[in-house]
Amino acid sequence: MDIYQLSNGQFSLLPAAPASLPAEGFLWLDVTHDEIAADPAAWRQAVESITGTHVYDPHLRDAVNLAHPTYFDSTQDYAMVVFRKLALDGADQTPEPRQTNRRIPAALTKLATRPVTFMIMDRALVTVRAAQSRTVETLQAKLRESRARQPGSPEELMLRLLNAMVDQYLDLRHPLTAQIDRWQRALLSPQHPFNDWNALLDARIELRKLDQLCEGQHDAMQEFRDHVVDTIDPANPAINKDLLLVRVNDVMEHVSRVLHHAQRLEATLESAVQIHFSAMAHRTSEIMRTLTVITALFMPLTLITGIFGMNFNDMPLLKSKDGFWITMGVMAVIVAALLFFFRRKKYLDDQP
């Protein structure tokens, strides 16, 4: 577990665990899931000895549960936020069980997520994350810069991290849109029939998961905003309540943008499928119309040949030397008349 101290505009890594909270500023306790899972009781005792706050058993289990959804909870001593971020860090990006036979496109495989747990205490922030987290490491590097503005409270530090995590979802808009556009062109292509229905179904499932994920994130941020409004004293000089509300609203607005984009992509994909089936029905109708016209043209000709094929000794034109040509002429006139009739009724036109 790494312990950082933020005070007087300085960000520093402490060489050892302090005996208590600092008089000015606050502490950032950064720990991985594996470190807690190795000895949960020892980790909880270490946090309690530093912050004076006891972590409850349900929250301790939630912190190491890699399948836990996004949510917010609070007690009299601390508040807890579980936020699912994109698993873009490190080689192992499969925290969620997936079926091996699913054909998910490359753009949608980036929607695999991991939980990050935040525990906001009095002058302390505890983060529980994966062993490799690009978001956390990037923020730590930025805070080490002397010119970087330091967060003034644990809540502000958490909101900075959340804002960076949500921005990762926004970065996926272009590859997701490009993948949906490729499917649209494939669905509407008359030269190449679309056969990749399993991948399309898996894509809809992933987009639905993204939709539900964003709804959970928005609800959690709304509950945290209510917690800030109800519990933080505006007269507290250590916490700028207005700034926190602005940052919370900014995170919620970013989550809403991702949610709306996921809903638009899902609607676009559904529309493309409907247009595909409409085009297929239209092509089938064109084929059936052509076959119907051919059948209508040959029905009277078949009738004439059937009549002259009957076994009678005396029939008109049967023994005439011009009977064949007269019959062929009558057939040609019938075909021409039917084609003229079909043209007048616009049965052969492509446009109604």
What does this 3D model show about the protein?
The protein is of the alpha+beta class. The chain folds into two domains: 2-280, 2-Layer Sandwich (Beta Polymerase, domain 2); 282-344, Methane Monooxygenase Hydroxylase, Chain G, domain 1, CATH 1.20.58. It is 56% helix and 12% strand. The protein has a seven-stranded mixed sheet with strand order 2-1-3-7-6-5-4, with helices on both faces. β6 (113-121) and β7 (124-129) form a beta hairpin. α9 runs antiparallel to α10 (323-344). The chain is rod-shaped, with a radius of gyration of 36 Å. Mean pLDDT is 80; it is low at 90-100. It is found in: Cell membrane. The chain crosses the membrane at residues 290-312, 324-342. Its main location: membrane. Keywords: Cell membrane, Ion transport, Magnesium, Membrane, Transmembrane, Transmembrane helix, Transport.
The CATH architecture of the largest domain is 2-Layer Sandwich
Beta strands, count: 7
How much helix is in the residues? 55-70%
Order of helices and strands: EEEHHHEEHEEHHHHHH
Q: Superfamily at the CATH H level of the largest domain?
A: CorA soluble domain-like
Shape: rod-shaped
Largest sheet: 7 strands, mixed
> Can you tell me the CATH class of the largest domain?
Alpha Beta
% residues in beta strands = 5-15%
The CA-CA distance between the termini, in Å, is 73 Å
